[in-house]
Amino acid sequence: MRSSEPLAVKVDYYKVLGIQMGATDEQITEAVRKVSREWRKRTESSDIAVRQEAELRVAQINEARAVLTDPQQRQAYDAQLQREGVEAPKAVDTTNHGGDWLKQANHFLGIGDYHSAAYAAREATQQMGNSAESWWIRSRANAGLERYEDAIYEAQQATNLETNNPTYHFHLGFVAENLGRYDQAIREYQVASTIDPTEATYQLSIGSILLDLGKPREALGVLEPVYARNPGDQTANFYLGMALIDCAEQIPSLRNEDSYVVAAQAELDEMRSYCDKAKTLQNPPPEVVQGVTQLDEYLARMGTKRFHVPFGQARYRGPVASAITACFIMFVLFLLGIVGASTGTGGGFLWFLICIGVGVGVFFLTWVPNWKVNSRLFD
């Protein structure tokens, strides 16, 4: 019997992360980092409506991460998404509940109903005239609907009407960031921070953009003072943790678009310093803990020794084959030494010492850490 429950998925997690359905695990991980950086800073806003909207988005991002990084859950979710699609959005609520369209628009934004929020905000604009607050709410609604060109125009109207409102400058920066206008976004965040230097959100936003631009060391200079002022704040822990992970992962010189390998002791040591610092964060969220744990495990593997024969076709063999080859070479040298020593002459004993010495040299040549193996393979 067919269930009366709707079978369509409630949220398109791929859309939440801004990726395609066939995205790889690495692409999902990177997307989670990116959209988390984009929305987490807004959870620190002093405006409760902005905070509620951001908390809803962050919850969706966390749900997407949990489902799409679990192979069984992802398989079931993908099958349901392909078969039934996504639930249709709610019908736009055009009812005037009590006459306060702005209050209604804020309510709709807090529950993620951007269509109804946009309608209520337009009604508020008509009712209140050229109001900075109504322009700001219209912009937030259109940003939620990914109508960023409309949103940035409306956000600029709000800042023009109230030039000293940091919340409006912060939102304008947020929309500019989504349009890829990073210089403008940083300027707006700086203006907001100048108006209200006590609000950590604005500095966190600057650090977030620097991370997106691949400048984690510059981001550290912005984020470390924020963390130092409030080490227990999870959002500050999130951005600083991400910056430390990004700093570590920028160090290896051998890399392609999606991955890297450590191939030097100096690289391993420098990455370890960032990882160790990230492990001291006081209140990191789960995604930072996961990222630091994965980095720590990778660095441990790179420092672990194994056999690797560095010459001929043997250099491309796996750990087991390399161990067998190295042990065979040392065993042959040992036998040759025994045969030489069995002659009972001084020359035979010297030959034994030479064979043992070469065997010891073979051991140290082939028993090496994984980063050394990488260096040999990619040399």
Task: Give the helix/strand layout.
Blueprint: H1 13-17, H2 25-40, H3 48-68, H4 71-84, H5 101-110, H6 114-128, H7 132-144, H8 148-161, H9 166-178, H10 182-195, H11 200-212, H12 216-229, H13 234-249, E1 254-255, E2 260-261, H14 265-278, H15 286-303, E3 305-307, H16 319-341, H17 346-366, E4 367-369, H18 370-377
Antiparallel strand pairs: 1-2, 3-4
Helix pairs in contact: 2-3, 3-5, 5-6, 5-7, 6-7, 7-8, 8-9, 9-10, 10-11, 11-12, 11-13, 12-13, 13-14, 13-15, 14-15, 16-17
Short descriptors:
379 residues; mainly alpha; Helix Hairpins; two-stranded antiparallel sheet; two-stranded antiparallel ribbon; 18 helices; 4 strands; 3% strand; elongated; transmembrane
Can you describe this structure?
It holds the Pfam family TPR_8. This is Molecular chaperone DnaJ. Keywords: Membrane, Repeat, TPR repeat, Transmembrane, Transmembrane helix. InterPro entries: DnaJ_domain, J_dom_sf, TPR-like_helical_dom_sf, TPR_rpt. With 379 residues, the protein is mostly helical. Among the domains are: 85 residues, DnaJ domain (Helix Hairpins), CATH 1.10.287.110; 57 residues. It is 69% helix and 3% strand. It contains 18 helices and 4 strands. Strands 1-2 form a two-stranded antiparallel ribbon. The chain has a two-stranded antiparallel sheet with strand order 3-4. A hairpin with a 4-residue loop joins strand 1 and strand 2. Helix 3 packs parallel to helix 5, helix 7 packs antiparallel against helix 8 and helix 8 packs antiparallel against helix 9. The longest helix is centred in the C-terminal third of the chain and has 23 residues. The protein is elongated and about 110 Å long. The model has no long low-confidence stretch (mean pLDDT 83).
